[in-house]
Amino acid sequence: SVVYKLSKAMNGRVSVPFVGFLWLCVWAAVGESKYMAYKDPRQPIVVRINDLMARMTLEEKIGQMTQIDRVSATPEILKECSIGSLLSGGGSVPLPHATAEDWINMVNGFQNASLSSRLGIPMIYGIDAVHGHNNVYKATIFPHNVGLGATRQVHTYTILFYIDLSSTQTSADYTEKLEECVKEKSDAYDAFNSFIKLALLDCIAKAYDLSLLGPKYDEFCCCRDPDLVKRIGAATAIETRATGIPYVFAPCIAVCRDPRWGRCYESYSEDHKIVQQMTDIIDGLQGEIPANEPKGVPYLGGNIHMPAYYNAIIKGVSTVMVSYSSLNGVKMHANKELVTGFLKGDLKFRGFVISDWQGIDKITDPQPHANYTHSVQLGIQAGIDMVMVPFNHTEFIDALTSLVDDKIIPMSRIDDAVRRILRVKFRMGLFENPLADFSFVHHLGSQAHRDLAREAVRKSLVLLKNGENADSPLLPLPKKASRILVARSHANNLGHQCGGWTIAWQGLDGNNLTSGTTILNGISAAVDPSTEIMYSENPDADFVESNNFSYAIVVVGEPSYAETAGDNVNLTIPEPGADTITNVCGSVKCAVVLVSGRPLVVEPYLSSMDALVAAWLPGSEGQGVADVLFGDYGFSGKLSRTWFKTVDQLPMNVGDSHYDPLFPFGFGLTTKAVGAS
């Protein structure tokens, strides 16, 4: 120890009292140097943040504002630059088919390097988890958001409606009072003396047709299914933790108003109210805010794109990512009015704002990276706290350092950013528990999570057509038939079924990308063993006519894509899907299942189809489609997007003056499970 070395150096040449004095002074100095308030979990977070920031150099602060991809990271970079965060971009994995243990070992290796830095500030590892832990082999892949937006919660409740015959009040009086009560209450209660008793289970619905006296039974309350997405969020969080990763880039709460946009499947709906409901996924991903925690309740005026951010912040979301988009010609990465003024100011957001992948570079689009230092200035001044610079961290750090040294960006802006980043790290307990263990690895792709994904698939399906009229439905299909046809590659292609952001950024083709069940697998498992299934990717009309099929299931759709690669001005069914519909449906009763990230042009073929199902991008559990096709469960999904007739109508959303859809927002036929009363 230091004391031992000092006492040996004295070699007895000082008096005992003086030695004692030295010991007291040295012990006091050692004690003071060892105690660091930011490492003391007993201290309030604000004290810990202040203590740590007082010790940090400008270089360390800017390092905390930097996020790099794992492929650019080395232990030396993490230690010397005090890098604040690492990420895995789409497809950035430790090794092909990496196990949960492989991921944990990689993350912990990087974390140990961060902990060896001068102040030992842990980094935070992030990953895209937009429909489950979608970068990871054998993880559960849930339906994309466009499908989850179509789910609805259906609860049966009974209204017991009692009238006191001695009362002079009319039924209209009771109707008004009951409707007021339904709007205000969500628990079972007694109201209005002995006149009305309402048993309301799980959700609130307006009571209909209450002018009739006497009991009414089996009213239905329906709303979108935020409980489902909350459970999906919790499952995703557990699977992400199973790989040692504590930070996910999810959910996307964009309100897609034009399906030609390649990111539309990442949006729950064209209606912000549905997107607001779906922010309950945050409670699953991050946990609900404890009852004693303060919740900001800022006022929010009417707007299409902003309301869901209010809900997300109320639920305690820790970080917000800025989009690539522009508003009135101003890139969002440079929009101080919205990032600082609205998000941090009006909405009182106290977490940190992170850029998108090379989002700073794209401020100068269509010439990205054209004036990088100026772009860094605009982004940081706009209010971005952490910058995703996957491959060029030294350029970013040098540029921001020079901007601070030249007093173009004030130190107060740097301190605000670092304070926000550290607040998130302290609140998540990263300083106390920086390293992951293997206690959750068995949850990755667990059967319970796959069952949940299968449930989500069932609830997301929207039945758009079922026979020419209600008296001649095709669905549900009989499980026992002599011979049935399953056509097109989407029936047996897990990659297309999952869509983009699955294992790779753009998704993959085929069945070897991860574990899961194709729609064809589900059909095979659902039908009676005596039923012969013939699968053909692109059968011609002669083949169909010559095989005497009882019925056919044609599964067509889009290839996998993500972001701008999915921008599409035509939105037609990719060939030869349309030809297959014509060949098959012209010769035999057929149900068409459309696997896509958005509505597509179907009107030219609709008359030849006996049934049409929008399956969206169902993910890894394709048997959920078969569950409903064959009547084990009923169809219940409702469109969260308007289904247009032609692309010439776009953009067209519910409420528009030119609204003339093929299938309107909220449309969806229902069926009952076979055997259900």
From TrEMBL:
Molecular functions per Gene Ontology: beta-glucosidase activity
Ranges where the Glycoside hydrolase family 3 N-terminal domain occurs: 57-155, 223-288, 303-424
Record GO biological process: glucan catabolic process
Signal peptide interval: none
Record bears the keyword Hydrolase: yes
Keywords: Glycosidase, Hydrolase
Every Glycoside hydrolase family 3 C-terminal domain range: 461-670
Record protein name field: Beta-glucosidase
